[in-house]
Design brief:
The complex is a heterodimer of chains A (about 425) and B (about 260). With about 425 residues, chain A is an alpha+beta fold. Chain A is about 45% helix and about 15% strand. In chain A, the strands form 4 sheets. A 4-stranded mixed beta sheet of chain A has the order 8-7-6-9. Chain A has a 3-stranded antiparallel beta sheet with strand order 1-2-3, with helices on one face. A 3-stranded antiparallel beta sheet of chain A has the order 10-11-12. The longest helix of chain A has about 30 residues. Chain A is globular, with a radius of gyration of 21 Å. The two termini of chain A are about 25 Å apart. In chain A, about 55% of the residues are buried. With about 260 residues, chain B is of the alpha/beta class. Chain B is about 40% helix and about 10% strand. Chain B is built from 11 helices and 5 strands; from the N terminus they run E-H-H-E-E-H-E-H-H-E-H-H-H-H-H-H. In chain B, helix 1 crosses helix 6. Classes of the chains: A alpha+beta (about 425), B alpha/beta (about 260). At the A-B interface, helix 1, helix 2, helix 4 and helix 6 of A face helix 1, helix 5 and helix 8 of B.
């Protein structure tokens, strides 16, 4: 029995990738995830640009995690230049970051993943068959986008975020309005948890090394230390010891590995590593969804995103309360303390750990840059999952196999345009 | 037209962040009626179905490799109306920053010894490859402008894209001019239509919507110089989204000489 599955330009993911699986005589011969996205060259292009532009240029790496790229970029510049952002800046960044995580997770859960379970090709037919589900998703996405708009002007691409602070400040009334809408969204959040709990998630277990940021006092999204489920703990500056980026002949995007052949980043890694710091209601949602660390079913990365939706809504309310209590004051950007400099900025964007590493010259222009994207870090792990999964489903009809593998790819919520600072490889 | 009488439209992406297509998805939050007015037959980021029969093609992203050209020509052959969606498709956008370094250096910086394995060439806006009927400018596009363009196309009208400078909108917003705050801004030469969103949020305009059709370039450069910018600084200011246009203009001047 021989089978060949080729999914050219898999849909409902961000960017261009192909799945290729070959089975001969019931044995898996080859499986790979080809990245066919076009070249981006952001690291090259950053050279010679003023550090003040870096966050605006790099937010253009990705339309979905634009705020995440901007934040990692700002932290890299700030750590290079000795800039200490104020407490207000930290709170505002956290708030807009929650907005982006919510926006991205809602998009993924409702518009990219849900159609697989409901037997349709996109969210569009759901607008007539399940209008309440689609309207809920649009409502939640609008709220998420409005959080980003109030803080930074818009979600794609944020405007008011700068090295050392913000160039625009939200009004108290705007924050109060967001707060009441976040409270009102709890019913939608609950319905999202219920929807997720009702879906028949494929059964699949494959343990891997889960890598994320961690912080002593909160569920880490910005800064902290790098932690892995195999027990490693490193300061951000030593990220390269974890990522070990390397080129793989069959893939167009760079792969990474730490202590095993591959590792995984993203909501599931954060959930596994930082479960204790989730908001109590997020933990409750995890229980409803049957999730308890460590979860080793990759398909459940989407369920971990739902847990984070609960966390981010509740934490956003707490951040707004903190801002309302202290008041929001227009403040100048925190000053640059040194130049030249080198700095590493790391954030947990929706799809996992994002690293920006900058070298800034005496004239304030970048002399070098390195960006490591979550999807790159997951590619090797995705192929490891393919190798484990294909033998389990090899007896299924071809269409069912194809759908299963597409769902596995989508579980990672890959962001391929981001991942491509390596480009198309020609296959023999 | 499809059997249900709705015009068929399709979305395509080339080198870009896909943020403009996400903005299209976001426009449904406020304008869900769009789905009743058109039939989307292709939108890879959001749907599995793939129809090749479409009247209007929205194209996001720049052309950055030779193999993209055939795909673009195929879209042009099929579509009665081609719309460039956002700065990458309209202008080349940030992708054109590549021009500021020698191509070989750009490739080797990222890919090292294996640079030769990867296909790329000079970045170009879509219009440099196929005729484009309309462009929705911006990085990203403005949600309301997208809706306005779709409405105009449905009515068979020319989409309402302004050709006056950003300063007009900025004044209407009653913003304090950034030049009075010790900053600089490309508003005087940039096409309006974004409601001056960047100056409103305290950042200078970087011309992501491209230049108006008759910008007073000399005056703009003098103004930047008066505010302390060196020639190098001015070039930097002029190139975040518009390197391709600046380069074309230089080449044109060179040819005239």
């Amino acid at each position: 029995m021989s089978k060949r599955i080729e999914v050219h330009h898999i849909t409902r993911v961000e960017g261009h990738g192909n799945i290729v699986v070959e089975v001969a005589d019931g044995q898996l011969k080859d499986c790979r995830f080809e990245v066919t996205e076009t070249p981006r060259f952001f690291e090259s292009m950053l050279r010679g640009r003023p550090y003040t532009e870096a966050s605006h240029i790099t937010s253009r790496i990705c339309g979905i995690c634009a705020t995440g790229h901007a934040t990692a970029s700002l932290r890299a510049s700030e750590r290079a230049l000795g800039v200490e952002p104020s407490e207000q800046t930290r709170l505002l960044r956290k708030l807009t970051f929650h907005g982006e995580i919510l926006d991205s997770h809602v998009l993924h859960v409702y518009m990219l993943v849900a159609p697989d379970f409901l037997g349709v090709g996109s969210v569009i037919p759901l607008a007539s068959s399940h209008p309440e589900v689609v309207l809920r998703a649009l409502r939640m996405k609008k709220l998420a986008g409005d959080i980003c708009a109030v803080v930074a002007g818009r979600h794609t691409h944020p405007i008011a975020m700068a090295v050392g602070g913000f160039t625009h400040f939200p009004k108290i009334s705007e924050l109060e309005d967001l707060r009441s809408r976040l409270e009102a969204s709890r019913a939608d959040v609950e319905a999202t948890v219920e929807l997720c709990a009702s879906l028949p998630w494929p059964r699949f277990e494959r343990d891997t090394e889960y890598v994320s940021l961690t912080k002593p006092d909160e569920y880490a999204f910005i800064d902290g230390e790098i932690i892995t489920s195999d027990g490693a703990r490193l300061p951000l500056e030593r990220y390269q010891e974890v990522t070990n980026e390397h080129l793989v002949k069959h893939s167009s995007a760079k792969h990474t590995r730490h202590q095993r052949d591959s590792y995984m980043v993203g909501a599931l890694a954060r959930f596994n590593n930082n479960y204790a710091q989730l908001h109590p209601w997020a933990k409750k949602a995890a229980t409803t969804l049957g999730l308890k660390p460590k979860v080793t079913n990759t398909y459940l990365n989407t369920a971990a995103q739902v847990v984070e939706i609960v966390h981010c809504v509740e934490d956003a309310i707490q951040v707004i309360d903190a801002l309302l209590e202290r008041g929001v004051q227009p403040e100048p950007l925190a000053p640059v303390k040194r130049m030249p400099g080198e700095g590493v900025g790391v954030c947990e964007v929706p799809r996992g750990m994002l690293i920006h590493h900058y070298w800034i010259g005496e004239d304030g222009r970048l002399t070098g840059a390195n960006c490591i994207i979550p999807t790159n870090q997951n590619l090797a792990n995705l192929e490891g999952d393919f190798r484990a999964r294909v033998p389990q489903i090899v007896d299924k009809p071809l269409d069912a196999m194809r759908l299963d593998l597409e769902m596995l790819v989508r579980a990672y919520d890959p962001c391929i345009s981001c991942s491509v600072h390596v480009l198309e490889v020609k296959f023999d | 037209m499809s059997t249900n009488g709705k015009p068929k439209i399709a979305f395509f992406d080339f080198t870009s962040c896909e943020g403009c297509q996400l903005t299209v998805v976001d426009s449904l939050q406020t304008h869900p009626e769009l789905l009743q007015a058109v039939e989307i037959v292709q939108f890879r980021e959001a749907m599995t179905e793939k129809g090749e029969d479409y009247l209007v093609a929205f194209i996001e992203g720049s052309c950055t490799r030779e193999s993209d050209e055939a795909r673009l020509r195929k879209i042009r052959e099929q579509a009665a109306i081609v719309v460039a969606l956002g700065a990458c498709a309209h202008l080349g956008g940030v992708n054109a920053l590549k021009y500021l370094h020698p191509m070989d250096d750009v490739r080797r910086y990222v890919y090292g010894d294996q640079a030769e394995d990867y296909e790329t060439y000079d970045v170009r806006p879509i219009e440099a490859v196929i005729p484009v009927d309309f462009a929705i400018p911006g990085c990203p596009i403005d949600r309301n402008e997208f809706v306005a363009v779709v409405k105009a196309l449905l009515l068979g009208k020319k989409p309402p894209i302004p050709d006056y400078p950003l300063c007009v909108e900025c004044k209407l917003k009653e913003n304090t001019c950034l030049y009075f705050k010790g900053s600089v801004c490309l508003g005087p030469v940039t096409r309006a239509g974004c409601d001056a969103i960047c100056p409103t949020y305290g950042q200078s305009c970087e011309a992501c919507r491209g230049f108006i059709s008759s910008p007073n370039d000399t005056s703009m450069r003098n103004l930047l110089a008066e505010h302390g910018l060196t020639v190098e600084d001015i070039t930097t200011r002029y190139t975040m989204f518009t390197t391709y246009q600046v380069r074309e203009r230089l080449m044109q001047k060179e040819a005239e000489r």
